[in-house]
Amino acid sequence: MLASTSTDSPTTLGTPDKTGQRTLLAFDFGTKKIGVAVGQELTKSTSALPVLRSRDERPDWEGITQLMETWQPDALVVGIPLNMDGSDNEMTLKARRFSNRLHGRYNLPVYPADERLTTREAARDCYDPRNQRGHKRKGHMEVDSVAAQIILETFFSHHT
After folding, report:
1. Residue 119: Cβ within 10 Å count
2. What domains can be seen in the chain, in order of their start residue?
3. Is residue 76 classed as helix, strand or coil in its secondary structure?
């Protein structure tokens, strides 16, 4: 089952409304690795990007800045890990803090998205030769970015 996207509003609406035509970057936040995906809202196409490494639980801001410069996104989506009952946990707070820091650094709208079960689905996609997304077996390092891709696909299906 795909994770449902939160109905929360973005952190900010500081850019002109280009809804339907935007480029978005999605993040599957982790304290060791951050999965990243890019997508085009018009075509609803998404691609997993290389995983970024965190150091001492600090995101690779240089790597994120390079992604911002390369893709020039109009908005960002951050997966928010929740318990199965919808309650917060320690990682929920860290992901929300990461989301707020993204907004502060890049002044873009940041949409929170429920990421429950996305890593499980991504692992199945990465290791199953007959997966739905047509990915070749990738190995564990790519699971986080495939999870970010699933988060973004789910966001598109609920917001466009």
Report:
1. 21
2. 23-159 (3.30.420.140)
3. strand
